[in-house]
Design goal:
The protein is globular. By secondary structure, it is mainly α. It has 20 helices and no strands. It has two domains: 220 residues, Hypothetical protein af1432 (Orthogonal Bundle); 79 residues, no CATH class. The longest helix is centred in the middle third of the chain and has 22 residues. The relative contact order is 0.15.
């Protein structure tokens, strides 16, 4: 029943974007990401088959091994090849991590004034690591939460790049006013960046749960449970979206804690999850070949805001 609801929402959440965007094209997926997604759908796929797809891209293979041998997993012994990594972690975990890396490096820098790609990916990675910790605490699938959180705003570089003729007024108002982006979108457009992201993910043939993670990341936990896809990685991703960026208001942190409480997570657990994520942020940025920028932790933001 849960997966039927996920499938249904993944279809409904994308809207009629083919009509809205007309002839606009979605950037093609990296070839290795396409192959991985094909394998994910095959229930008979073997460890060797997935390993061969990852190994076909030497850069991806090297980075996946870095991630597997990092503090992300903290295995006691080094894992030296992709086949072994896939066997130890399982197909789904390795596929999600490899897909996340492929997408990070498959999306072009839009090079718009005021948009810092380093800040974008640093914030995304911090939220992804936080979502992984939250998912583990709540008993959800950590890798799904990590990948969903990392890609929750994947539409933004596309909107600021290939689709800037549509999105420029929204971006300029957001820069000038600092209003929440999705509120500006809802007021001025018939869609939001998270709906656009869900549609792109659907077109890219992402698994339905990842489509939901992207499409619902600004929803409250209560709203997610009303839809019927709660108590899953979707909640962890939504909570991660409340993790403030480079600056925040006291109300932002209060909202984060309030949403966590609905999930049965205390402020102490949220703070611990955020600190554990922050501790490995630099190492994981290197593993994902992200040019990270310095940013405050949630603890530092909380202290600054009293």
């Amino acid at each position: 029943m849960f997966f039927k609801k996920v499938k249904r929402y993944a279809a409904l959440s994308t809207g009629n974007f083919n009509k809205i965007f007309g002839g606009k094209e979605i950037p093609p997926l990296p070839e290795v990401a396409m192959k991985l997604l094909e394998k994910i759908k095959d229930p008979e796929v073997s460890v060797d088959e997935v390993a061969k797809v990852i190994e076909s891209d030497p850069g991806l293979s090297a980075q996946v091994l870095k991630i597997v041998n990092s503090a992300f997993y903290s295995f006691p012994k080094k894992i030296s090849n992709i086949t072994r990594a896939t066997g130890v972690l399982g197909l789904q975990k390795v596929e999600k991590i490899a897909l996340a890396y492929a997408m990070v490096h498959g999306i072009k820098h839009p090079e718009r004034e005021g948009f810092d790609f380093g800040v974008f990916w640093t914030d995304s990675l911090y939220r992804a690591l936080f979502a992984k910790q939250i998912a583990s605490l709540a008993g959800y699938e950590p890798e799904e939460a990590f990948t969903g959180a990392l890609l929750q705003d994947i539409a933004l570089p596309v909107l600021l790049g290939e689709w800037f003729d549509v999105y420029e007024p929204i971006y300029q108002r957001w820069r000038e006013t600092g209003e929440p982006l999705h509120e500006i979108e809802e007021e001025e457009l018939s869609w939001t960046h998270f709906q656009a992201g869900a549609w792109m993910a659907k077109e890219w043939m992402f698994p339905d749960l990842l489509v939901c993670c992207i499409g619902l990341h600004t929803y409250s936990v209560d709203e997610i449970r009303e839809i019927g896809v709660g108590e899953s990685a979707v909640e962890a991703v939504a909570l991660s979206s409340r993790l403030p960026s480079m600056s925040c208001r006291k109300e932002d942190i209060e909202e984060l804690f309030a949403e966590a409480e609905i999930m049965g997570l205390s402020e102490g657990k949220v703070m611990k999850a955020s600190e554990e994520a922050y501790e490995i942020l630099g190492e994981m940025a290197e593993c994902f070949a992200i040019k990270a920028v310095s940013r405050p932790s949630l603890k530092e933001m909380l202290e600054e805001n009293g």
